[in-house]
Amino acid sequence: MPHTPPRPAKLALIFPGQGSQHSGMGKRVAEASPGAREIFAEAGDILHLDVTKIVMEGSEKELAKTATTQPAILAVSWAYFAYLRGRAAEMGRQLRPSHVSGHSFGQFSAAAAADAISFADALTLVRERGRIMTKWSKRRPGGMATVIGPTDEAVRDICNEISPDGDVGVAAVNAPGQTVISGTFAALGRAIESLKERGRVVQLPISVPGHFPKMSEAREELRRSIDRIEFRDPKSPIVSSLTGRVLTTGAEVRQELSDQMTGAINWMRAFLEMRKAGASAFFEMGPGHVLGNISKRVDRDAQFIDVFDESQWRDLILEGPLLDPIVSVTVGARGGVPSPTDPATTSPPASSEKSQPNRTPRA
Predict the structure, then answer these.
(1) In a domain, 325, yes or no
(2) Which pLDDT belongs to residue 64?
(3) Are residues 24 and 68 in the same domain?
(4) E strand segments, 240-318
(5) Is pLDDT at 266 greater than 80 in this prediction?
(6) In terms of domains, do 84 and 24 share one?
(7) CA-based nearest residue to 127, from 46, 183, 61
(8) Residues 46, 173: one domain?
C-alpha cells in the first residue's frame, strides 16, 4: 500500500483583546522587527497619540484606560502580523492562514489582517469604540468580572435572577468553566456576591461594561462610524467571535464589528469552529499569551505557536504557497497591500517572549 504523506497543518491567526496588555508590550516585537517602530509611528500619526511611548513605556495605570489601550494593542498586533508575514516573504512564501479570528475588539485586528479593512481604518474605529464606550460609562458606570467554575448557563441564570431587566449579564464565554459578566456596578456587585457561592469570581480593573446589551445607543453611534468605512471581502475567512460563523464577505464583517459592542463573545464556539474546519496550529498575534491560555482550556490538542521562536513555525511556513515572484510584501504600517517596490524590512527573530500573567480577555 503506497505511503500517504501527512497533510500540512492548517495555521490560524488569533488576535487578543483588552486584558492582554502589559507594560512594555511593544518591546519584544520591536527588537525582532525594525518595521515595528514604523508601525507604531504611523499609528501615532493616525491617532495623534504617542503610540510608541504607550506600547514601549506605558504604565499599567495608563494601559487600563480603554480609549488608550485598545488602539495600542491593535498596533502591537499589527506589528506581530507584519513581522510574521515579512519572515514568510523572506522564505519565499505567502502567509495564508486557513482562518483568522479576534477576541472582542481583536476582531478589528483580524479584519485588517484579512484585508477586509485597512490598518488605518481599524485603528480609527477602535479608538472611536473606546471613546464611545468611555463616554457611555460615565453616565452609567459599570464593570466586568470573571467567573471560574460554574457553567455559562448557570452564570446566565443567576444574572437573570439578580436583574431580570438586564443590568448584568454574560459578556463572554471564554472556555468551559470560564465566563465573563458585565453590568452596572450595583447589579454587578450583587451578581458577584451570589456567584461566589458557586465558584471563584475576580472583578476586573475596568470601569466600562463591555459587550453589554444596554449599550445600544453607543452601538448605534459606533455603527455610524463603521458605515463610513470601506469594507472588502476578506482574503482569509474570518470566524465570528459572536456566533462562530465563517464570514466571507465585507458586508458580513461590517455587521460583525457593528454588533460587537452589545453582543456576548463566545470564544469557545469560535475556537471550536476553527478546529472543526481543520486548523491545528495557532499563532497569537499580539502581546502576551492570554488568548492562547484560554484556548488551551477549550482544546488541549491544539498547537500554539510562539511567533518569536522560528523553530516552531519555519516548517509550517515552508509548506505554504509560494510568494508571487513579481510582488514583494510591505511589512511596515501599510503592510496590508502587496507592493511591487517596497522591500521586506524584518530581521531574524530573537529569543522567546516572556510569559505574561494569565489574565482574562474582556472588552
Answers:
(1) no
(2) 82
(3) yes
(4) 246-247, 265-266, 279-284, 303-305
(5) yes
(6) yes
(7) 46
(8) no
